[in-house]
Amino acid sequence: MMPDNHDEIIAAAALLKAGGIVAFPTETVYGLGADVSNSSAVRRVFEIKKRPADHPLIVHFADASRLHHWAREIPEQASQLAEHFWPGPLTLILPRSRHVPENVTGGQDTVGLRVPDHPIALALLNALGPEGALAAPSANRFGRLSPTTAVHVREEFGDAVDLVLDGGACRVGLESTIVGFNDHTAIILRPGGIPLEALAEVLGGKVIVPEKTHRAGRVPGSLASHYAPATPMELLPTESLWRRALELEARGLRTVIMTWSDQNPERSGTRNLTHFPMPLEPKVYGSRLYATLRQLDRECFDRLLIETPPDGPAWMAIMDRLQRASRLPDPAIKVNDYTSPQEDRNITNVI
Ligand code: TXA
Ligand code: MG
Q1: Which CATH number fits domain 233-325: 1.25.40.10, 3.50.50.60, 3.40.190.10, 3.40.50.11030?
Q2: pTM of the entire structure?
Q3: 58: CA distance to ligand 1 center in Å?
């Protein structure tokens, strides 16, 4: 659908105003939108997604200059980031204004705010009027991979969603970077579509990466499984990848190997071993990651081996998602939350 498909946008906005749930494309992933001021629609989003009520939703709006309508305090750093990166894959966590209902933020006093950079999302938000906004999580079931096409959304939810606006494949393909503020210092709570260096450049170098974000997954069991494909998955360094693959093959397991360094498809070919080379360029890798994992899930392999991506800030969001996906669920820890207060907030890296 093109953004100039005025009639479909108007119909979608009317549906939202009437309490409907509309999935819509953004530049990152598809969102599952409800009119922020309609409490029963917001409640339905939690129900459809099977998400606990205390996990906050991001509020999406169209006009970055209206940030003060949604946030009651805006540190200078937040204004700078908003001005520079919106519309774009950046979510700011700020004290919520009285215009943000409590059920949207799961009872928290802060709210996640974002102006998405997608013509359909922006047209839809504009059609809701100057005070309109959409409370929207990623349009996947709780703990599953985020959708990057309209087809993925339908696969997740079928008819439980009233309308899915089709904007094709999402350009970024990974969720937005989430930034919170502590004493006027920016803290990265979820690495995502805006790379760390870009944030640091705009803020003159003052960005903090909490240890749990920087080293996500290095402490076994410290974080819960998330963004998980259905196929059992192992994240392995380059050196041990093929050895492990041959081991699994010898046990008769149908195994697929996803690499970034080895672009040579000739290494596949035995009956039980499939090689899936991914792009070397992190932006392209990131944009295809979720769709690729969904595709591989459909092929019902016994095991998915993924080559650990290179170190470095350009791969940080990808590394974060792969580590979360390869971790086994820990029932003691809440799933799907990067930013819940009970998680470790030790800060070790000032960049
Ligand atoms: O790219 C994105 O951010 C996509 C698109 C649709 O905009 N949305 C998205 O939403 O990823 P969701 O709900 O799947 O992930 C939002 C994350 C959750 O981990 C949530 O806990 C956190 O943001 N979050 C939202 N509001 C928060 C708040 N007030 N304080 C702390 N964390 C918050
Ligand atoms: Mg999500």
Answers
A1: 3.40.50.11030
A2: 0.91
A3: 5
